[in-house]
Amino acid sequence: MSRPECVLTHSSGLILIPNWTDNGGISLIAPSGGTHHVQSLYSKPLRPNGIALENGGTVLLAHLGDTQGGIYRLSADGHVEPVVMTVDGEPMPPANFVVQDSQGRIWLTVSTRKTPRSADYRASASTGFIAVAEPGQNDARIVADGLGYTNECVIDEVRGHVWVNETFSRKLTRFTISNTDSIQLSDAHCVYRFGVGSYPDGLALDEEGYLWVTSILSNRILRISPDGVMQRMFEDSDESHLQWTEEAYQKDALGREHLDTARSEVMKNISNLAFGGPTRQRIYVGNLLGDSLPFFDTQFTGVAMPHWDAELGELLPLLQDSAT
């Protein structure tokens, strides 16, 4: 694996993760454990951070470029086409995350408008946003702005909420979807404010309505109730490393050197999680610095994402090849 930051699971047992090798692309892991890499044939290297599986087997990539972003569509043969390149008519900054809802809308997050991104590893961060592109549109519309380093979001269509992690504001925020035809978000509410050593990154929802949050640097997995009660489910951290990073954070001096270093027993800067397996009770853990994909089993069941039963289409032959 090469920077398996984001994990997607499918009812077939297929697992998809981004891949930063060479020109960028994705890696497919079959239920047997066999792996197939789909390399981008695009004219420039793509750095997929978040990914989203579409019906038919194409995969959306959130391009985390140094200065520019964009949402691209990757086909099984490596062909790439730009999908959403602007936000409110302006070039998209580096894109962090992408997800589709049940209506085929593309939701994306941009962590910061600052360059380099590390300039906004600050408690005062406030230039991140969430944007939405309607099906067939190549220009997204900002629906929530002024966020403190926007990371992953969950679209909870059943309850009419959007949940989002603000990594360096150290907050889990909930919005209400106030218009389902032309999406509007309102009633921003801080559900949980994280303390020392917690930098919320990945986000998933279980069937009881609880949010599962991963924290970079501390390798924590937290389960948070809708009304803000937190339970720590896992941690693999080093106390001296957390103290070093916390001192830098408090002095507005947190930088790449802190995020690019993992001091732990097993985990390599976990960034994401996804419920998978036959009953969606197995949790796969994405990470920034590792070359493997850890997992563990739990009694909790994850919500089926819109892509859970997506038609694999052109990916199906690759899945079968990987299985053999």
TrEMBL record:
It is an enzyme of class 4 (lyase). InterPro entries: 6-blade_b-propeller_TolB-like, SGL, SMP-30/CGR1_Lactonase. This is Virginiamycin B lyase. Its EC number is 4.2.99.-. Keywords: Lyase. Pfam families: SGL. GO terms for molecular function: lyase activity. The lineage of its organism: Bacteria, Pseudomonadati, Pseudomonadota, Gammaproteobacteria, Chromatiales.
